[in-house]
Amino acid sequence: MATKTAIERGDDRSAKRQEPGALAEFGGGALGKWNELTSFLRDVRAEMRKVVWPSWKEVKVTTGVVIIATFLFGLFFFLVDNIFNATIMGPHGILNKLGGGQ
């Protein structure tokens, strides 16, 4: 049981549970869940109003940057993979890839 001074100072975390009307604030049951859902959806709507959406020009520019970066990274990893493969397999592995090896 929390002491009165602990409750006044706010030191006891269980003080809320010891108050007689603490369960009244729970709002249990289906109605409580419905209230939580509507409150959540209201908050989502408020946050969506705060979003700053990019302009069409910004979307096109950043899409182009992503496409070019993807292509460049793909080319880089292709070259690195082939260099490692040639190093490990040696000249014989390269000839087999080109179709000249037996």
Automatic annotation (TrEMBL):
Which GO BP annotation is one of this protein's? protein secretion
This entry carries the following GO cellular component terms, namely: plasma membrane
Keyword Transport included in the entry's annotation: yes
Q: Where are the transmembrane segments?
A: 61-80
Superkingdom field: Bacteria
What Gene3D superfamilies does the record tag this protein with? Answer: Preprotein translocase secy subunit (1.20.5.1030)
InterPro entries named among the record's database cross-references: SecE_bac, SecE_sf, Translocase_SecE/Sec61-g
Location(s) in or outside the cell: Cell membrane; Membrane
Give the way it sits in the membrane: Single-pass membrane protein
| PROSITE patterns with a match to the protein in the record | SECE_SEC61G
The family database entries (Pfam families) matched by this protein are listed as: SecE
Under NCBIfam families, the record lists: secE_bact (TIGR00964)
What role is this protein assigned?
Answer: Essential subunit of the Sec protein translocation channel SecYEG. Clamps together the 2 halves of SecY. May contact the channel plug during translocation.
Q: Which proteins does it associate with, and in what oligomeric form? A: Component of the Sec protein translocase complex. Heterotrimer consisting of SecY, SecE and SecG subunits. The heterotrimers can form oligomers, although 1 heterotrimer is thought to be able to translocate proteins. Interacts with the ribosome. Interacts with SecDF, and other proteins may be involved. Interacts with SecA.
Listed name of the protein: Protein translocase subunit SecE
Query: Highest lineage ranks of the organism?
Result: Bacteria, Pseudomonadati, Acidobacteriota, Terriglobia, Terriglobales
Gene (UniProt)? secE
